[in-house]
């Protein structure tokens, strides 16, 4: 009862520390999504082919995140079940990430090889990083906790896209790194990832497993999927479908925002990432409030309202180019950033609250499995989306991807109407 009176407050500091894991992903992902298509554009003219190459990370994620999540569920070490993955794989991720722009200057083959290695280690560690939070935070406070760690991810996006990305335009020579133009943000981001891992390892201690490990039910991922589909309450099943749809829309747009900024809005490479940076700013500001709103108003209502708003915003993005054609270049750019900021504000409300809805249906022993299911749905969408929207760009131009996103978000809104559980007031499975 003590914790009920204090609410989420006793867990706030711990959640911020756990958020260092999310900081690493938030730092790397926007830089990757913005600049890898630009790097690939040096060798490849077809946006469809660029979209195909951009799906490599998601193909790996589809298999590796569920696998590593399940393996980490069953791992027992003196430092916990998630931490061994975090302290070994995240530094390797930093190494591959820091070498990306250097590989891009050698050849297309070298770049694809580094992308291959990067995504093997990055997607193998993502599941354990994400599953660490529900291991340590009670079920009723996970929307708030997810808000905090998404705030950390948002801060990282700001650091990456508004801070580090600006260094792409700096052309100096540094020891070890050589010339810095179009390179510097990547090795610096890698260094920050390593520092975040050190802080996470030193300051966060995993709790000991309760109960008998041998007696714990260990369901394989396919069995878990069948169980979900066979439940009388198919809420988890519908959440997974909704996840697939809204990530299909999101991943169809975000990987091409940097090139849209370059090709349509005429930005420099250093400012191309600022559109994604606006999403990060919104993340940092609204992630925590969105968790509290969902705790009061309900996760389902918050998600559905946010989906409807994003439908309207992406329709507005579709009309932005012709409607702003008479404005100055700076006003065109600022108005685009403003819409992207609003997009991020409501997108974070969806992401912050959807994960806790799924976790609410898991037990302690299956937390990693449900985390894996989340990523199976989201990364399955991310595999398909860049290929589809790359083809749309080749056929009708950039504006078509915004209508594609609108359609996906509207479909997700309709499917979420069928969800009946996952609210913070419900008891978690034993």
UniProtKB/TrEMBL annotation:
A Pfam family matched by this chain, by name?
A: MFS_1
Q: SUPFAM superfamilies, alphabetically?
A: MFS general substrate transporter
Tell me yes or no: is Transmembrane among this UniProt entry's keywords: yes
The alphabetized UniProt keywords are:
Membrane, Transmembrane, Transmembrane helix
Where, by residue number, does the polypeptide cross the bilayer? Answer: 12-28, 48-71, 83-100, 106-125, 145-164, 184-204, 236-258, 270-290, 302-319, 331-351, 372-393, 399-419
Which segments constitute the Major facilitator superfamily (MFS) profile domain? 14-424
Asked whether the keyword Ligase is assigned, the reply is no
Q: Which InterPro entries match?
A: MFS, MFS_dom, MFS_trans_sf
Named from the GO MF annotations, one term is:
transmembrane transporter activity
Query: What is the name of this protein?
Result: Major facilitator superfamily (MFS) profile domain-containing protein
